[in-house]
């Protein structure tokens, strides 16, 4: 029988935020695969490390830095062959996914290629959005509010259109797009109370207001949480009968 393939969400960064099920899976599999950029350590592996057996076989999947999709596609095709060979031998493999496997994760490319032939299990993980909301001590959305999740890679016109009239928004993949996105947020009227969270739940976590003068450059692992209107959320919830 072929081995099982597990897509394991390792959470936003703090190893203690991994699920019990995810940790149990990692202790049971024969091989752990993980994404890794050239000449860098794997963040997913670092998060999962406390939950791995010391002698577990590691399978790094080296992902290119190029923006073109073709190099990445070739990498995933080779990874599928590599993983498939192990599964055919009856060996169980876990692939580590930062955050949640199906929330803007590379795991979806492996799932699309392997799920037709093998038993693929998805182990959900806590996303960076949940960690960011906890960091600023404010819900992503309250009561009947509508939450929008917007990639910072959207063009200005689309981003502004999506923000206008929105009660709560999470802008992800901010990084080098910060200055441009900040201008759009100001135009949309969401700047008041907007917070920038970098490396949520990790030891390097930082939390700053959108208008903080010391924000020069952000990493890819940055999120902006912003809200329409100026009413404090706690007062808003209580005024509508909550609690």
Characterization of this structure:
- The chain has 243 residues and is of the alpha/beta class.
- It folds into 2 domains: 5-126, Cobalt-precorrin-4 Transmethylase, domain 1, CATH 3.40.1010; 129-239, 2-Layer Sandwich (Methyltransferase, Cobalt-precorrin-4 Transmethylase, Domain 2), CATH 3.30.950.10.
- The chain has 8 helices and 10 strands.
- Strand 8 and strand 9 form a beta hairpin.
- It starts with a strand and ends with a helix.
- The mean pLDDT is 91.
Protein structure class: alpha/beta
The neighbouring-strand order within the major sheet is 3-2-4-1-5
Number of strands: 10
Taken as a percent bin, the fraction of beta residues is: 15-25%
CATH architecture of the largest domain: 3-Layer(aba) Sandwich
**Number of H- or I-type helical stretches:** 8
Any idea of the CATH class of the largest domain?
Alpha Beta
Question: What is the CATH topology descriptor of the largest domain?
Answer: Cobalt-precorrin-4 Transmethylase, domain 1
Mean pLDDT: 91
The N- to C-terminal Cα distance equals 53 Å
Radius of gyration computed on alpha carbons: 20 Å
CATH superfamily of the largest domain: Tetrapyrrole methylase, N-terminal domain
What form results from the Cα inertia axes? elongated
Helix content: 25-40%
Summarize the structure.
By secondary structure, the protein is of the alpha/beta class. It has helices at 20-28, 43-48, 69-88, 107-114, 128-136, 156-163, 178-188, 233-239, and strands spanning 5-9, 31-36, 57-62, 93-97, 120-123, 147-151, 168-172, 195-198, 206-209, 222-227. A hairpin with a 7-residue loop joins strand 8 and strand 9.
């Amino acid at each position: 029988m072929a081995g099982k393939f597990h897509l394991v969400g390792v959470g936003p960064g703090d190893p203690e935020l991994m699920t019990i099920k995810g940790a149990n899976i990692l202790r049971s599999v024969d091989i752990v695969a993980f994404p890794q950029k050239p000449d860098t350590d794997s963040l997913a592996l670092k998060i999962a490390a406390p939950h791995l057996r010391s002698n577990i076989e590691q399978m790094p999947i080296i992902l290119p830095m190029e923006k073109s999709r073709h190099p990445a596609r070739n990498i995933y095709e080779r990874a599928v062959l590599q993983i498939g060979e192990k599964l055919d031998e009856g060996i169980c493999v876990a692939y580590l996914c930062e955050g949640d496997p199906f929330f803007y994760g590379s795991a979806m490319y492996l799932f699309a290629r392997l799920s037709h032939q093998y038993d693929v299990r998805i182990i959900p993980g806590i996303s960076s959005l949940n960690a960011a909301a906890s960091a600023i001590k404010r819900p992503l959305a309250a009561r009947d509010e509508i939450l929008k999740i917007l990639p910072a890679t959207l063009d200005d016109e689309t981003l502004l259109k999506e923000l206008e009239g929105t009660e709560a928004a999470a802008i992800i993949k901010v990084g080098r797009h910060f200055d441009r996105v900040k201008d759009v947020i100001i135009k949309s009227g969401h700047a008041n109370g907007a917070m920038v969270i970098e490396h949520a739940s990790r030891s390097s976590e930082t939390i700053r207001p959108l208008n903080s003068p010391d924000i020069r450059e952000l990493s890819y692992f940055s999120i902006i949480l912003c809200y329409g209107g100026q009413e404090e959320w706690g007062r808003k919830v209580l005024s509508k009968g909550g609690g």
